[in-house]
Amino acid sequence: MFNPENVPGWPAELVDGPVLLRPYRRSDAAAWSEVRRANREWLAPWESSVPGGWHELNSPAAFRWVHRDQRRSARAGEGLPFAVCLREGGRERLVGHLNVGNIVRRAFCSGYVGYWVDSRVAGRGVMPTALALAVDHAFDVAGLHRVEVNIRPENRPSRRVVEKLGFREEAYHVRYMHIDGAWRDHIGYAMTSEEAAAEGGLLARWRRIRTTAG
Asked: What is the Cα gyration radius of the chain?
């Protein structure tokens, strides 16, 4: 029988101000589908190529398979999947996704981060906050030593997120992943737990940046 206490860092809820990261629920199907379908032009150019139409692949029915796969990876200790939500006016709204996936333990203790956010809340600091929360959690409670993020060179909004938080640009991956109908190059960013600790944690770094900018 599954015992969540055997999976470091999972399940968990992470909060900073109005930004909440939490495990997905079966009841998220309609909200997830609405956000995904509304953001086709915003998201499709950056996501891996899979057979099927966008409307079908992002239906409430399709969410059942997404949710099942996320639960499996989390229970196996291979992923930390989070629904990214905003809590405003006493209501909670699903606005994105973040996953620390492909986690390998033992001598590696590393994972890859992927994320997306609703274009209707882009530019409000939601994703930098979410990423800072998740990486601090991955290094602390989940016990990872290193996280990587791979982003297409053309995806400036996503690159700005990791650059704000101090991720190192350390590699250029030629024809790394099949996205939007072709094999696309990616820039590899990374951070270790020592680098995050030197900042006092990524959330502390992000708060300093916001205070300075504001």
From this structure: 17
**Joined tokens for residue 117:** 């956010």
Q: Residue 183: is it exposed, middle or buried by C-beta count within 10 angstroms (0-12/13-18/19+)?
A: exposed
Pairing mode of beta strands 19-22, 14-16:
antiparallel
Residue 4 pLDDT class (50, 70, 90 cuts): very low
Domains annotated for the chain, with CATH where assigned, are 10-213 (3.40.630.30)
pLDDT of residue 5 exceeding 90, the answer is no
Secondary structure letter of residue 152 according to DSSP: -
On whether the pTM is more than 0.90, the answer is yes
Q: What pLDDT does residue 6 have?
A: 66
Mean pLDDT of the chain: 94
Query: Is residue 3 over pLDDT 80?
Result: no
Q: How confident is the model at residue 51 (pLDDT cuts 50, 70, 90)?
A: low
Q: Residue written as tokens 């990587």? A: 148
The amino acid at 91: R
Task: Give the Å distances, CA to CA, from 102 to 17, 109, 110, 139, 212.
Answer: 29, 10, 8, 15, 35
H-state helical runs in 39-188: 40-43, 54-57, 60-75, 126-139, 156-164
Distance CA 78, CA 75 (A): 8
8 A C-beta contact, residue 161 and residue 127: yes
